[in-house]
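Forwarding the complex inputs:
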Amino acid sequence: MEMYLKSLGELSASSGFAELFTLNVTFGPISLPGYLLMIVVSCILLYLAIGKGFEPLLLVPIAFGALLVNLPLSGILDEAGLLGAESTGFLRYVYFGAEHEIYPIIIFLGIGALTDFGPLLANPITFLLGAAAQFGVFVAFIGANWLGFNLKEAASIGIIGGADGPTSIYLTMKLGQKQILPAIAVAAYSYMSLVPLIQPPFIKLFTTKKDRAIKMAQLRPVSKKERVLFPIICTVVSGLVLPACVPLVGMLMFGNLLRECGATERLSQAAQNEILNITTVFLGLAVGSTMEAEQFLRVETLKIIFLGLVAFIFSTIGGVLFGQVMKVLSGGKINPMIGSAGVSAVPMAARVVQRVVQSENPGSYLLMHAMGPNVAGVIGTAVAAGVLLTLLTM
Amino acid sequence: MSTIIESPMPGKILDVKVAAGASVKSGDVVLMLEAMKMENEIFAPEAGTVKEVRVKKGDSVDTGAVLIVLE
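Prediction (whole assembly, two chains):
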């Protein structure tokens, strides 16, 4: 009997329950059990993803990854030889792909295969709107630095304004800012799903009812030759102008070439489906695995989430204001609202423009016109990441 | 004189709300078009009678494709 009780005691001492309250995180005078708190945070994220539909495809793997690493003693994130660990845990291998920026780049391959650049090619001037909507990236970069974040952290925070999750993760890791990765990823993906709530008030604030009623001429058809040449030319030109953006823009355009060339249908389908989905699972788990209590439960996390929102709002405003400039330059032919779609949340931001216009002017269709700046925004955010990377690693 | 209702964007016909011979008022929804996973209502630009419906549910259309002819 005594032996059984002893074994039972040993078993309970080696269980996670005993460890659950060992790691405490302090917020001023309050001290809270870190593991337990992170399990609650994971469950809240799972609820937002599953119950509320906030980017579930990425938020479910992130939240579950966070749940796994916050179960004490599992060793799932151990690295052999480090901190007395005998073997390497599964998530450590998964994390390798995020640490070396492999996942975001592969995701860009899938996005390229999914993206129709036709609306941008039909109206290339809208490329400028995709560039203007990176305004928030630089506003938040300056703001974050002013709030005490170092330049590399500030750049990683600013890029949230581009509303592009993979690019945000890529830049953060490339600049070696692993400690803020979970906050960046959670902020970037949360705001992407909140596009329909965040953007409309700012679109309306910077446009008049008359502006929003502008009907745009139908887009011209785009030839196959243009569609095939675009990814090749875009890769060469952007790669020569800004070599740092070659991995992201290059893979985006490679995916797009698979889609448009007509000779690689199977590869295009694989990139759009299997490759993108598998990588999304691993990227999500890897990001979640960095959500350890000591790293995530800090005041900095709240600051990053707030700055991300600022970045996103200013990107929307930058796009709309440049849309106003283009309205004047085009003699009133361009509806300035489409500028807001210059953030790269594809196609959510374009849908928001259509929703706003439809609520006021049924029979006015701006969806495809807004897709031009929208897809330009993907390139724009990747280029903005390249600019920040070049400036900060020179 | 005939009025042509063209597709304002590439997409898929989700629903056709009128049939040949039907009378429509300006602003009536004549069909639903899905583009970018978004449902878009297509309206009659003026009152008239539907002379011809050129598409059916499930069809894929390009920008500028003739959807409905009114007279």
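Chain B is about 0% helix and 55% strand.
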